[in-house]
Write a structure and sequence with these properties.
- The chain is α+β, with helices and mostly antiparallel strands.
- The chain is 50% helix and 14% strand.
- The strands form 2 sheets. It has a 3-stranded antiparallel beta sheet. A two-stranded antiparallel ribbon has the order 4-5.
- Strand 2 (11-18) and strand 3 (26-32) form a beta hairpin.
Length: 202
C-alpha cells in the first residue's frame, strides 16, 4: 500500500486494494481523516456494485419476469376462452331459432295443404327421434321434394361446421364449443313446453 501523509492538512492519503465479501478485489483510494475513510470505501463499494447484476439480483429479475409472463399468458388464455363462450352462445341461439322455425313449419301437414296438426303430434314425433336425427331435420337437403327440407332451417355453412366437429351423436360440437369445453344437445320436448337447445359444460 502506498501512503502519502500531509500532517499540515491533517489527513493521510493511501492507495491500495479494496476487498469486500462478494466483491472482486479492486484498487481504491483511502482518505484517512476521522471517519472519512469509510465514506471513500463506501463510494468505491457502490461503484463496484453498479458495474452489473449480482447473482441474487439476477435471480430476482428472472423470477419477476417469470411471474409477469405467467400473468400475461393467463390473461390471453382467459380472453380466448371468453371469446369462444360468446360464439358458443351465438351458435346456440342460431340452432334454437332453426328449431323453432322447424316446429312452425311442421304444423302444416304439407306445404301444399291448408290442414294443420297439433303441437302434441309434433312433440311425439320429435321425441321419437335421436339427438342427431333431430338436428338433421334442420339441415338443408338439396335433393328433397319438400321445399322446407330442401331449404333447411339452418344455413349450410353452420350445418357443415357442426358436421366437421361433432363426433358424438348426442353432443353437437363446433370449434368454438370445443375451445370453451361445451357442447349443444337437443333434449326431449316436455309437455306444455317448447323444444329447446341446451348448452352444456363438459
Amino acid at each position: 500500500m502506498l501512503v502519502l501523509t500531509r500532517p499540515a492538512l491533517g489527513f493521510e492519503l493511501s492507495f491500495g486494494r479494496f476487498t469486500s465479501a462478494g466483491e472482486v478485489d479492486s484498487p481504491a483510494f483511502f482518505l484517512q481523516q476521522g471517519n472519512r475513510a469509510l465514506l471513500v470505501m463506501t463510494m468505491t463499494f457502490r461503484r463496484q456494485r453498479e458495474a452489473g447484476f449480482s447473482f441474487v439480483e439476477a435471480i430476482f429479475t428472472i423470477a419477476i419476469i417469470g411471474i409477469m409472463s405467467s400473468i400475461v399468458v393467463a390473461a390471453i388464455s382467459n380472453a380466448s376462452r371468453d371469446a369462444s363462450r360468446v360464439m358458443a352462445r351465438q351458435q346456440q341461439a342460431s340452432v334454437q331459432s332453426a328449431l323453432t322455425a322447424w316446429v312452425m313449419a311442421q304444423m302444416r301437414v304439407s306445404s301444399n295443404s291448408a290442414q294443420f296438426q297439433s303441437l302434441e303430434n309434433i312433440r311425439v314425433a320429435y321425441n321419437a327421434m335421436s339427438v342427431s336425427q333431430r338436428f338433421d331435420q334442420l339441415v338443408p337437403k338439396p335433393n328433397s321434394s319438400d321445399p322446407n327440407r330442401r331449404a333447411g332451417f339452418l344455413d349450410q355453412t353452420t350445418a357443415d361446421h357442426f358436421a366437421d366437429y361433432t363426433s358424438n351423436a348426442s353432443q353437437l360440437q363446433t370449434l368454438a364449443l370445443y375451445n370453451s369445453q361445451q357442447y349443444l344437445t337437443l333434449p326431449d320436448w316436455q309437455t306444455g313446453d317448447f323444444p329447446h337447445v341446451d348448452l352444456v359444460n363438459m
